[in-house]
Structure formats: C-alpha cells, structure tokens
Design goal:
The structure is a homotetramer. By secondary structure, chain A is an alpha/beta fold. Chain A has helices at about 35-45, 60-65, 80-90, 100-115, 130-140, 155-165, 195-200, 200-205, 210-225, 320-325, 335-355, 370-390, and strands at about 20-25, 45-55, 95-100, 120, 145-150, 175-180, 230-240, 250-255, 260-265, 275-285, 285-290, 295-300, 305-310, 395. The relative contact order of chain A is 0.17. Chains in contact: A-B, A-C, A-D, B-C, B-D, C-D.
Chain lengths: ~400, ~400, ~400, ~400
C-alpha cells in the first residue's frame, strides 16, 4: 500500500495476445457475485470462461454450468477434481476465480495453487490469520499471481484520486472518512436468502458479518486512494436490522500512517441506502469526495478556489492512471461492470507477465494483491477484538 | 412506435443456447463506436466476434483485426468478399454489425442481406429515402432481422419510463422536451479527426451533421419513451462551434400524436457539456425526467405528491420491462456498456427466434427496428427542409 | 441593457442614513407578491412600511392594513387618495410599491408619479405600448426613480454571472437557453384562485398569461445575465393545463444581439415543477448554468478544464458585483427574501441619490429600470403576434 | 426534548399586535452573528431593534450603533447600564439578544434577567455547569422567557422531519448520524480574526473550540429532529488545521434514548467544506436525510418504496409543523435569514404570551429553551472529559 516512488505514468497496458482461460469455483444459481466476476472477465476481452465448479451440489453445478454455456466435460462439482483435471488438460484453465463463501476461500485457493494455477479470490480473503499465513506461504513457494477482488479500486476515478493525492492535490492529508451503507440486512428474510445465510453464519463468515463483508471494501478503498496504511482503530458493533448472531453495523474511529485520524462507518441495515460507499479525504489544501453510486466523477474542493468536478474521460485534469483503465468516452457512463473489466484486465496482464517471466512495472497495475487481502483480514480481526473489549484502540496491522 | 396493447410483462428473455457469431464492417483503429458495439456483444454473453472488415484499407483492417483477436482468415478489407465468404463457411457469421460512415450503411446492409445474414446497423440508418426504401424492400423479401442501434432506449430506466407512461403514471401527456448537448465540435480540430471528418462531410454524412448524428437519438428516445410518434417539426439550424459546412446545432418545436407539443434541442458545440441527453415528459398528473449521464434513475414528480426517485434494481416501483433487462443489483451502477449488452441480447433473441421460425411476442423486446431507423431518416430530412424554408412546419412522417 | 464600459467594481453600496418610508398599492389578504415585497423591504433595513391601499375593498384594506401593523390613518382603499394624502403629510411615504394586477400598474404609477413619489412596480410593467409610453413620458418629466421587480436579477450569483460573462469567462456567447416551469395552472381550480383569476383574464392580464407572467422574468434574466439584448423571437403558444382563454405554455426560438441564437420555454402547467427558472449560456470557451431553486451557486464548465462551482460568499472566484450584494457568509444559504432585500436596498440607494441630487455611478446598481420594464412589454407583444401569425420571426424591440 | 404527546398541529401562530422592542449586547463591527440575529428579527416583522451595547469599546459601540440606525441615547457600551436604563424607560426594550463571546453569555443574561427583561442567547449557552445552574435558578425565579439560538431547528424542513419521525415515517429509529464540516480554521490567520480569536481562546471559549461552537448545533439538531435525548458519547479530539490550543475536529460515537447508536463528526478544518451540517436518521422502515446547505427539502428513503423528496411549501406530504413556519411559496427558496425570522417570530410569541400571562400550548413552538442550552453545555463537557480520558463512554446528561 506504500506510495509508488515513480509510477510509470505513460505506459499503457500491453494488448492481449490471446484470451486466457478462466475457471470458477462458486457462482451457481442464485449467487450474485460469480455472475459479476464473469461479466468483468468477458467485458475485458482478455478471458474466456471455460470451466467451473459452480456449486458443490452436482445437480446445481450442472444446471448452472449449462446456463454459463460451459462444455459438459468442464462442469465440476468438486473443486479438487476440477483443479487436477484442468491442470492436466492441454487447454486447461490459466486461472481460477474463487467466489465461494468466505470459509472456503483458503482451501480452494490452496488446491489450485498446488496445481500451478493463478488465483483471483473474492473478499474478505479468509477468516483467520492461520489461513492467511498458509496462502502467503503458498504464494512465496509458487510465485503465482494472487488477486483479491476489492473491485471499487478499479474504478477509473479511484485511480484518479490516488494519483491526485500522490501529486499533492489535497496537500498533506488531515482526515479520512469512509462509509458504506446498504439496507438489505434490515429484513428478517435476508438471513435465509442464499447470500445472507452464509454471510450471517459465523461458521462460514467468520467472526464478523458486515465489517468483513463491506467493511473490508471501505478499508481497502480508504487505504488505496489515500496511499496511507490504516494503523489502528476502535470499533463499535451493533445489530440495527433484524436479529442476527453477528453485527450488521459498525462505527470506527481510525488512525492512518502519520497519525492521520479518520472514521469508518458501515451498515447493511441502513434503510433507504443501496451501495452507499463514499470516501472523503481532507488535506490542508483541499478536500476530495467520491461516491460509488456515481463513480464517474471526483469532486476536488480546494480551500482557496471554487470546487472542481473531474470527469472520467475528459482531457482536462485527468491523469495517466485513470486514462490507462478508461474504456468509454466521457459522458457515456462506465459502471460496475467496467470496474470488473479493469480488474480482470489487470489480472490478465499480471498472469501473462508471470507466464512470460516478465516483471510488471511497479505501479502499473492497481490489482489488489494477497498482501491487501491479508490487510483486510487483520482489519476485521482488530475490529472484532476492539468491539469485544469495549472499544479499545487496536493495532490493525498485526 | 405504437403502444403495445398487451405487453407480455412477465415473460423473461429466453436464455442463450450457444453464442452466436458476429462480424463487423467498420470499427477499425481510431473508430469509437465499433469498439462499443463489440463490448456490448461480449458483455451480453450471447455473441462471439469472429470476423470483420474493420477497414477498407487492407493494412488497417489487418492490424485492427489482430487487436480484436480475430482469426487471420476472417479478417477482410472488402465487405462484399466478407459477406460471401462468411455465407459459405459452415461456421459463418450469424449476423453483421455495420459501424461505417453513414453513406455506406445501406450498401453494406444490402450486401449482407443478400447473403441471408441478419443485420444490426448504426444510426442514422442512411442518408436518403431511396436507400431506406431499398432496405425495407430487402427486409420484406428476406424476412431477416434488422436492428438499429438507438442504444439509449436499451437502458433499463428508459424501459421503465415507457412502461410507467403506458401505465398512466404521468396521466395524459401534455409536453415532451428532449435535448442532447455535446461539445466536441466546438474545436476546429474536430473536423479533421477520424469521427469528425466524415460526420461533417455532406458526401458521407448527408444533408445534416448534428441533427442526423444525435438528433436522431433524441427523436427516437422521445418517441420510444412516450409511446407517441412525432408528426411535425420546425427547425432552426446553426453553426455554434468552429466553421463547418453543416449545422452543429439545431432547435426544434415539435408536435406528437394527439397534438402534443414539444421541443428538441441538439448541439455538438455546447461548451462544457458531454453527452447531455435529457428527456422530460409532462403529463396532466406528473412529470418524468431522465438523463443519460445518470441513467440509473428516473424522477417522477406528481402534481399532488412528493417527487419520487425510481432506482434501477429496486423491488419497489420497478416494472417488468426494466427488470427483464436488468443486469446488476441496485446500487451497483449499470452504464453505457450495459445498455449495449441489452441491445445485443435482444438482437440475439430476435435472431434465434427467426432461425427457429418462432415469433417474438409483441413488446417483449425493445430492439429498435428498421421502421424506427426509417423514421429517423424522415425526421432528419424534414428538419433539413424546414430549416431551409425558414422554419416551416413540416410533416416528419413522409 | 448595454454592457457597462467600466463597471465601478470596488465601490460598495452607501450605508443607509435613515429608513425610508414605503407605501403599498395592492397586496391585501390572499395576495402573495405584496407580502414578499414587504419582506424584502424589511430585511433590507432601508425601509419601513408605513402606508397602504392594500385592497380596493375598504374592509379588506382595513383588515390587511392591521395585519401589516399599519397606523389606522394610513390605511387606504383608494390609491389616488393615498397618493395625495401621503404627498401632503410631513412624514409621507418616500416611495410606493405597486403590486396590483397588471392592468392597474400604469394608472397607479402615474398617480403617484404625479405626486412626486418614486415607484417600484411589479412585472410585467403594463399591458400596452400606450401605457408604456405614458410612463416613460412621466418619468422624463419628473426625473423620478422607477424600478421594476425582475427580482431574480438581484440574486448575488446572477450578478456574478453577468460579471463573469463581461470578464470573458465563457468567451464569445454562442447560445442562450432559458426556461421557467411552474405547475399551478394545471389545476382547473387555479383560475378561480386570487392570483389565477386576474392572471388568466385578458381584461386584467393583457393578451398573454404565462408569457407575460413568467416569460418576462425569463427574458429579463437572459438579457441581464448575458449582457445582450434579445432582438427577435418566434413563439408557439399552448394550453397544457386546464382550459383557459390565454396560453399557459410558450416555446420560443430567439435571437440576441450579434446574431446569437437561443431558446426560451415557459409553462405554468408543467406537472411536478415548482419555480424551475434555469439559465444556460454557452460560449466558445465555456458554458454557464444557474437555477433559481438552488440560487447559491453557478456552474462554469470550460471546454478545456474541469467544471467549477462558484459559491456565493466564497473568496475564491467571486467578483465585486456579487460581493456588493452579499448578505450572508458562504454556506448559510441566501434565498428569495435576500434577493428582494437586495432589490429594495438598491431601490433605496437610487431614491436617496435622487433626493440628494446625486448620480449613481453607472453599473453600481442592478435595479431593473423602466426601460427594462418596457422591453418586457415589447417582448410579450412580439410573442403574442408571432404566435397569432403562425410563428413568424418578430422583432421584439419595437 | 421529550416527544410531545399531542402536538397542537392545526393551531397557527398568533398574529403580532405590535412590534416588540429588541436590544443587543454584542454584534459590533466585524461580528457576524449579531447582524444575522438582527436580520431575523427584522424579517419576522415582530421586532424593531432599538437599543444596543454592540461593543464594550465606546467608540466601536457608537459607530456600530449608528450603522444599525439606533437612536443616539440607546447606544451603550456597558451592558449593565443598558439593562438598567432600558428597564427604566417607558419604551424600554422587551427583550435582549446576547451575541457576545461565550464567557459573557451568563453574566449578561443574568444582568438583564434581574431587570425583568426576556433573553435570547447565542450558543453555546455558557462554559460551565455553575453558570448553567445560575441561569436556571434565575429563570425559575423570574419566569422570564429564555431562548437559545440553535437556529437550524427553525428551518421548516427540520420541523417537518421532527413531525415525520413522530408520525412514524421512519419506524423505530435505529441509527442517527450527524456531521458539521467547516473549513475556516484550517488557516493560521483564522486565530487572529475577530470571530476566531475568542473562539480559540480557552479563557473566553471554554474547554472546547469546535465541539462547543458547532458540535452543539449538531447535537441539538440530532436530538430535536429525532425527538430522542443523547445519553452518552465517546469523543476523539484533533487539531486538523493550523496549530491552536483547542480542538478543531471531533469524532464521536453516541448513544440516544432506547440504546440507539449514532455518530457525530464536526470539524472546522475540513478543506473545501462550508457549512456542511448534515443529518441522517435510519429507522426500521425508512431513512431520512437533510442538509443545511440545501435546507428546502428532506429525502425520505423507505426500505420498500422509491425515495421521496419532500419540498417545503408543497401541499403534498408537508405537515402542520412545517406549514406553521413557512414564509415563502414552494420553489422560492427560504434560506438562513428565514430560519432566523422563525426563531424571532417564536421568541416574540413566547414573550407576548408571558406578558399576557398566557401559556403557549405545548409543542406549538420549536424555540430552543434554556434546558436545551444546558443540554448543550453538558454535551461539551462530557466530550472534553471523554477525550481527555482516552475515549471513555461518558454520560452527557449529567
């Protein structure tokens, strides 16, 4: 998460030479996030989705695989079988996307890494530091690419913020506020829906529901955009919606590198909100604001000049980092699918470079790494402990 | 454009059985719109792009074809050769997307139709009524699918407006206002850029620059959303930006079926605007507003109740027409690529139905038809004549 | 309306020495605009309201006068009596505010001018060129101050626009669009409400309802802000709301000095709108936008830089013209009452100067003059004639 | 702060019978808030400002008094003299407005209360519980009216929120978030400006700068709008702007009656902000949002219906509480001056009722009381202590 000393601004992403082959674990009927990964992969035009263990139920796996237009012999219901079979095929998958419930992320990733297959994994990375350590060890051993889908950082205008901050547009950072409000867990029915059932179940989701589910997004966005590591936090957990065994709401006071204070608020039981992920950074020269629901612009509000609206796709004021990942001309909105396409484009570039034995220039890609995934796990665990201890300040890097 | 007597609201789109094969004419290096068509086709997961005459220059065609990852033997520089070759291949293209300058739309379309290949064509359809008549005749003869890429009508919330209007949400329509403001033709350099050069050249663009280029979008959107045909107009053409042989700005007073008055304003030389396509419909019960740059919501403002914001993806208030084409959950923005994906999804559904000899239920699809394309040509010609005659009221259906 | 060669930017308005005495004609129970004039006068702290013929019905005049806390002997029901009585009192009114239906503006104004009393009159000034000529003659004879309450031009940010335009912020003006949408005349009941009854009655309102009532506001705003005179128009009148003898909706194409084209749209039957007065000016360098319902900021959108939001009360970017009339610090919104307070402040400055025999420096005040009032009358008459003739281009300066 | 069991919804405010006479302590040249109080008093048409000790410097007092058009013999530089002199005049002031630095609020108020003069006092009420107790004792003894200028609660749409919440529009409240961001204390020069010098000086401002200065506004707004008392908080103080002896930034986690959690964030060193006071209430049925910079509407976002925009002045959806204090028709924005006018209107009603020996019906007025002022003092002291103790949860009602 440290600032790039010399980001290679004027280097475009290399063009594709062929479409890489992608497999999925998870994502079967009723799941949302697998579909979205697949859309990003397709829209990137760098991948074709060719195999999947979309469900551990053979029947669901089969039906889902057909919906995805997978060949019959590449529809699996056991991820270990899939890893080994694909490893052995001449046209086996180049990489796997893991979109299962959280508790399966680490075992699935390890199985594919053992077969020499690059991995992109949904967030949060895993539920314990032990799993995190095992993943780190496996990556060190294998040298494989390991991406984590903190997708909001793939919006062009989040790249723009990171570059503007590095270029001094806000001056010295003095406050960082991030919030993410959703409403779906208000409803008692949410805990029996497919996505809700495992997210609210400590056995599968870990010690946290909302802090893990969307708090990690907020944490990564704040760190990525500001270029500052979050060092400490104190957390206040609540159940604001229907009764459930884990928190659906968390308020934090935070500290970033350089003793920069901040706040982080997340709730999945905030009535009338949708995906209200909002970031505000106040520096000594200017403030910056970005909102996921209107991702196409950043507002820069200098202390001594009229506020400015930086629009994706414009010539004026838009830097190389955003240009590199821009897909549509200005005024024609990019959306969530475009951010996923950028994630999968950068994942492809990283995979191709590894296969070619090339190093990707530092700072060329914004693809979140295993390290970023582990930072998120530590963040969740620090919050759980802080809340349990009545709101102590906890280091979130340990 | 007439209202569907019984729109089949609860019928979802049929799932794909295989990816259809798509070829492109036009779209070579430097062109924008071909790329966007291709993104939509890929994101729809209903098509694979397998062939192209991306340019009439063999060298550009080759380079562009490689960038698109086309097989060497399916890269063409002559569209006639492409039509015939693809017709004769066992794995030949199912359909062609035409993204050339306007004056080539008709000859290219006719060439592919003669080979029995379904067509999707960029707008405006063509430059003369003679060409329009030839296309209509060819379609009648062949029974082929012919789509026109008035893509804005593929946004979920434009579908929502059409359904709300049909359901009486605004009452009886009393005024329709549509505007589309861009700024790129302000700049003298615009006339020598790839997209500008032919658009401002009467030999390729026809008798109008802006009325044809974006006026047709505004016209189609107003008619599609309101369910009313535009019957008459009077036009006032201007050059507001750099000098050029055709208008870059046009203001109209309009009349729709039922003597509903309106206005239509388009300019490609309106400084500080991007793709400012905005529709407002005022009825005797409520007003409606939608803006292409923030396409995810519609504002309904009743005369006797607080105004309401209908958000794509919500359960509340969102009808079947929008649901049928919704790709992302609420709060995760759909953008321009998603509208294109819907256009290509519906085109695929129409092509599959034709091949199967099935009829698509009336109103199931919002895919703009050849008829809609011809209505746009008549609209442009009526405007050109009205302006030339000093602003006479002209029928725009002849 | 001509541009000030050297606007005296750094001269503040002179402070008050005493509160001037103001009388009202019109404004009795149920009337809205009289109350608003009085609020502006009070908030300006330059006036005290001491006399009134608030109604021609003695009983209503009395009740209304008491509500206004007027002294018993200064409550009148006949404006002529009021003019003469006040002229003869040692503490007689310094000025009169005329807030009657339109057809009475001219006779009332003439009565007070004959008594040497300065006048501020609501818009539209009057219903005929004959009346306009009589008022002009009376002013030339008497040298009295005559203000017209085109109040929107008194918003600080409208002053800012005028100054920015003069300073070249938008470059050469290429298009001017103004619209004003209200909804109240949709409702059949509106024609029997106090304000509706006379506005929709040709005998009192003249040959136009909406073009006169709010079209004149839009016309003045466009001219004042741009610094350009409107020279010609063609008009299309409609009844969009409940049946009525005069138009409630008018669409225009317009021409300003220097052959600058534009549009003007007004409706009082546009469902879901409130006081949607919006101005857009497009120049060859930038566009500008202002909206009466959010009057505190102006958006400047340069063709070659991010768009900027100029906020009233800021140091950065705000010129002397806006500062001179700013009442509240930034972030604490000024509203409609503040615009009226500025109108009445400037009226007071003009009245004091006349009494002292001083000349107000050109451009110090933005107070709309009798000339501006007459321009509005000509605008209405040109529109009525254009519409009647089927939309001919008519000169609106004759 | 408890909810009114039966708010008298359909009772309008009584009309004025005469203008009451108001005096000021504080507000001399360079001060902002005194001017604003005076504007509100004038705009209310219930008061005339007739006397003042606008400064303790005789020269400044004199100059300021003349600017305010005060009579020479009612310009004072000593507030005690003013209290006694005015008490003894037959036309003495009915009430005093106290707009001095915080440490003088209590002594000045006590001086006037001892002379039987009703008081309206700026916030925060005072710097210590001792002072608060003395004021309470004095009020109990004298029965005088004592208002505190938490003016944001006088916006019509804040009244609307309170009524909507009472009526169940959001269901059971589950979260309350309030923030107030300004930027002026970023700048080192701020500490030597008139308003900054005393606010950042512990001797005059007390143990807190920002929590006292604008945190009290946020606290009162959250409690007033929700109808819930804040019971506990933990606070994190920072200096985010130029170095200063007191905090300019404070982040809190809060608890309201019924164990409702919330957050409160205030900063006067948040670059690019102006008066960013924003309230969000999430209930189990809907969320509500209001923003001081756009005070004319409230957004209600139900969990199960499209979000709605309630606009001041509309018939639809607007309750009696807002109607009672509405001054302008919809679409013509009320601003900060209007909120002050409402504050002074309600103060006048309270003063007249006391003088007449009448009781004002419970809930008729929203005028903040001495009790509300004392709650603010306790809130500040609890925050100061919590921060000093490293963020302990402190009761803020003691």
């Amino acid at each position: 998460m440290s600032a790039d000393p010399q980001p290679p601004r004027h280097i475009p992403l290399p063009p594709p030479r062929r479409r890489l082959r992608l497999g999925f674990v998870g994502g079967g009927k009723g799941a949302f996030i697998g579909q979205v990964h697949a859309m990003g992969a397709r829209l990137s035009n760098r991948w074709e989705v060719v195999a999947g263990a979309l469900s551990s139920s053979p029947e669901t796996a089969l039906r889902s695989g057909r919906d995805w237009l997978l060949a019959q012999d590449r529809i699996y219901s056991d991820y270990r079988t899939m890893a080994e079979t694909e490893r052995d095929r001449p046209d086996g998958i180049d990489a796997v996307a893991i979109v299962t419930p959280n508790h399966l992320h680490a075992p699935v990733a390890l199985a594919f890494m053992r077969c020499g297959i690059d991995v992109i994994c949904d967030k949060p990375l895993c539920n314990s530091l032990q799993e995190a350590a095992a993943l780190l060890a496996a990556q060190r051993e294998t040298g494989l690419v390991f991406g984590v889908s903190y997708v909001y950082a793939s919006h062009a205008m989040v790249r723009q913020i990171r570059e503007m901050v590095q270029d001094g547009a806000v001056g010295r950072i003095r406050q960082i506020h991030v919030e993410y409000f959703q409403e779906w867990a208000l409803d008692p029915a949410s805990s029996s829906e497919k996505g809700g059932a495992w997210r609210m179940d400590p056995a599968r989701s870990g010690a946290s529901f909302t802090t893990a589910d969307i708090g990690t997004h907020a944490h990564h966005l704040a760190c990525f955009a500001s270029g500052l590591e979050m060092q400490a936090l104190r957390a206040d957990f609540h159940v604001s919606g229907a009764a459930k065994p884990l928190e659906d709401t968390c308020f934090m006071q935070t500290r970033f590198e350089g003793d920069v204070p901040g706040t982080l608020m997340v709730s999945q039981a905030a009535a009338g909100t949708h995906c209200g992920l909002r970031l505000r950074i106040f520096g000594d020269l200017a403030g910056l604001e970005w909102n996921q629901e209107t991702p196409e612009h950043v507002t820069l509000s200098p202390a001594k000049a009229p506020s400015q609206r930086f629009l994706r796709g414009e010539d004026a004021g838009i830097g190389q980092a955003a240009r590199r990942v821009t897909r549509m001309p200005r005024g024609h909105p990019e959306g969530f699918a475009d951010a996923w396409a950028t994630l999968y484009t950068e994942f492809a570039v990283a995979v191709e470079a590894r296969r070619d034995g090339r190093t990707v220039p530092d700072g060329l890609l914004g693809l979140p790494s295993l390290r970023d995934g582990i930072a998120g796990v530590k963040f969740v665990l620090a919050a759980v402990e802080s809340n349990a201890a009545g709101g102590t300040w906890n280091d979130c890097r340990r």
